[in-house]
What does this fold into?
Amino acid sequence: MIASLPKQQRDVQKLFLLKNTFALRSRTWERLKFEIEYALQKGTTANSFLIQADRTALIDPPGESFSEIFLETLEQLVELKAIDLVVLGHINPNRVKTLIQLLERAPQIEVLCSTPAAKQLPQLFEKEEFTAEVNIRAVKRGDILDLGQGHRLEFCPIPTPKWPDGMATYDPATQILFTDKLFGAHVCGDQVWDEGWKVYESDRRYYYDSLMATQARQVDAALDRFESFEIKGYAPGHGPLVRYGLTPLTQSYREWNRVQSTQMLSAAVIYASAYGNTATMAQAIGRGIAKAGVTVESINCEFASTEEIKSVLEKTSGFIFGSPTLGGHAPTPVQTALGTALSIASKEQLVGVFGSYGWSGEAVDIIANKLRDAGYLFGFEPLSVKFTPDAAMLQKCEELGTDFGQALKKGLKQKTKAARQPATNVEQAVGRIIGSLCVVTAKRESASSAMLASWVSQATFDPPGLTVAVAKDRAIESLLFPGDTFVLNILAEGKYIPLMKHFLKPFGPGEDRFEGVESAEAEDGTPILSDGLAYLECRVEQRMECGDHWVVYSVVEAGDLLDADGKAALHYRQTGTHY
It folds into this structure.
């Protein structure tokens, strides 16, 4: 069972796990904020943990969305003034607001966190006008805190560009590693551990692709550090706890990291973020680049050294700068990183600029003009977003990233074109496999997309089902996860040319794919092409990774013939190496 909590309801599930250890799982079906990893809309859990030994430790309190109900539930387990310390896997303004409410009621609490977090916490307290004296202790790798009764917390910093203050915590008494952001998934339900773990495979992969793929090098370093622990379970910040699928999930992270780190081309996304909005855009752009089969190096220049930035820029084929606007300018770390890029980066490298702002957005233009004056070629037009990006804007950012990655690959293909050999007999034979010419249309909230498809096949009779092969770099790929719906529009022989030409043309990021096309709407708002032969309304059940494509299996829920006398258009190819 994955979910029983009614939608739009929030609660805190409290459970005994193992020796002296409890889980408090703050649950909701609501999207807490527009972040790319929440796009599947399966709700989420914010996992916190309480260890009650000779001393009592609270690990990772949730954000302010759950503050009131979380503290009420916590008080049912322990008197707040009996809590000795709070351990923070990472900090952000939302979590700090809950922490402040806790400290107001229990000022004796000692706060343990990584060194970067310890430096930032007083600033966040000041922004919230919280002036009470707080005992903050910065811990480093290998530090151990004895709670008694066998519980000896060992701390392991795991910094990444998005979470430079990241830290995992290990307890040998239960052999649980509290991993904060690593190994999570955004699903909401009653299940605490991951029995039947395969049901979460696509959710965990999506979470990895959204958050971890652009930080593969740092994630690998964290996994290396974890090898010193004897681990029987992961306790992540989101989703079910990991025990039954621990080894497969760890191996999957290793393999996904390997794939991300060994592509022929790489690009750097260099950014700073004042309120998290620019970081969210960086995350979406990075995911788009990775979808195109290009390694992404994500660099938060507020915490990266000049030498690290130089090292990355010297080996990438392109770089993108992201910046907020503060006082009419880019923040100092961005200006310093830009100076480094202008001094060492080759003019053959493709570039891009993006950013968010509150009242003015000069920073993006300032950075773009300096890159133009230096003679760099842009992979996309500079993009500015006011305040928080919504679902449509995040889709546009992802498509910008994919276009950027494809442009890098196109440049590589042009360099190697002369060495290309004629199609082999096998490639020509594979090309003789034919399929119906179709257009797949999909919509989720304000995000919509479409693609021309011919790798379509009926897969089951009962229930009626079909498979569609979707290239990983297709924009629509992000809208085709289990639970999503789409429409398969089957094109008609003799009438398909206008629709084929329309959906074959290159669309700009965020451009309306359906402008000028006559269509109706399915029940969920997905466009149905009026000039098609037939259409099928489908719900995605499973998807399987197959080389450079995803094979999406879907169940047909409705459909109709629009031209009972027509025949399906077929797609013939001369070679099996391209469409």
User: Anything to note?
Assistant: The first strand starts at residue 10 and ends at 18. Residues 249 and 255 are 10 Å apart (CA to CA). Residues 391-416 form the longest helix (26 residues). The mean pLDDT is 91.
